[in-house]
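User: tokens in, sequence out, please.
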């Protein structure tokens, strides 16, 4: 097995190679002045099973094209099988038609990856697992929540309350509770599909005087977490942290979250950045070894 170090997740790919012992295939990449991407595999893959580690966070379109180009280059150069490890799968949130006239973005992404030569896909905490039904090849969705919860146990937050900011993330809070050992609960969030505006409400939660960790799959603008923090403060939470798998943290999201009284933001290296304090390397390595 060989591992192609996709430019969007080079460090993570290096760590996975170290843990699995798979031989590394470096990639030369550049983006031309007009925005088009170029990639070249700097190693042989003839007759090999190869894994490409490459996330598709911002710039999503560039990263998606580079992933497709690497898969195509691998197949053209004789790779037997191509596994794409895409820790953050861009466009996964548009996995159905919400308003008439829309497309299903993730379906287009799936077809594109298939056409490029991808044979199977591993991702991490995809927004909704049903999106994987759109892929015409085998897929696996890993959960990084236990790793995030262990980070907080290491900080002395055993028995903290695990809060999901909406019902869709309740499974995440429940997975965290398995590790933390405290309570779990969720708020309610509704979204206006035309304006994108969200509204959060929270019934009485048992958080008075407690340490609370808000867990979500994605933090993008930070609005969801800031709204949740306001409700938690009203209900008497003593200390508030937040953890997410995919820390997109667009614009001033980090500042907004910290200004809302949250003590720390913890994300994984599915999206590289200064808050990516938990590495996915052991999780991905185990999944690759089990293939
Ligand atoms: C949506 O349901 C996701 O789980 C996240 O809650 C959402 O993407 C976070 O977005 P933002 O940080 O912009 O509120």
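Assistant: Sequence out:
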């Amino acid at each position: 097995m060989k591992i192609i170090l996709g430019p969007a997740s080079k460090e993570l790919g290096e760590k996975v190679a170290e843990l699995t012992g798979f031989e590394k295939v470096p990639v030369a990449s550049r983006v031309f002045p007009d925005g088009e991407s170029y990639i070249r595999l700097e190693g042989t893959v003839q007759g090999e099973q190869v894994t490409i580690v490459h996330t598709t966070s911002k710039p999503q379109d560039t990263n998606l094209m580079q992933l497709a180009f690497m898969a195509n280059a691998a197949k053209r150069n004789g790779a037997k099988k191509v596994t794409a490890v895409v820790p953050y799968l861009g466009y996964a949130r548009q996995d159905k038609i919400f308003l008439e006239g829309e497309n299903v973005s993730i379906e287009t992404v799936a077809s594109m990856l298939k056409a490029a030569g991808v044979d199977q896909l591993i991702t991490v905490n995809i927004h909704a697992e049903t999106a994987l039904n759109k892929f015409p090849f085998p897929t696996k969705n890993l959960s990084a929540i236990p790793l995030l919860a262990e980070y907080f146990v290491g900080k002395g937050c055993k028995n903290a309350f695990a809060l999901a900011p909406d019902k869709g993330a309740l499974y995440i809070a429940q997975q965290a509770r398995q590790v933390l050992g405290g309570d779990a609960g969720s708020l309610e969030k509704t979204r206006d599909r035309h304006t994108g505006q969200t509204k959060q409400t929270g019934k009485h939660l048992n958080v008075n005087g407690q340490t609370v960790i808000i867990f979500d799959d994605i933090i993008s603008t930070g609005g969801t977490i800031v709204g949740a923090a306001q409700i938690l403060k009203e209900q008497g939470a003593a200390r508030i942290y937040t953890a997410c798998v995919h820390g997109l943290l667009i614009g001033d999201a980090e500042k907004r979250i910290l200004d809302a009284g949250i003590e720390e933001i913890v994300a994984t290296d599915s999206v590289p950045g200064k808050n990516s304090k938990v590495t996915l390397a052991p999780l991905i390595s185990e999944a690759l070894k089990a293939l």
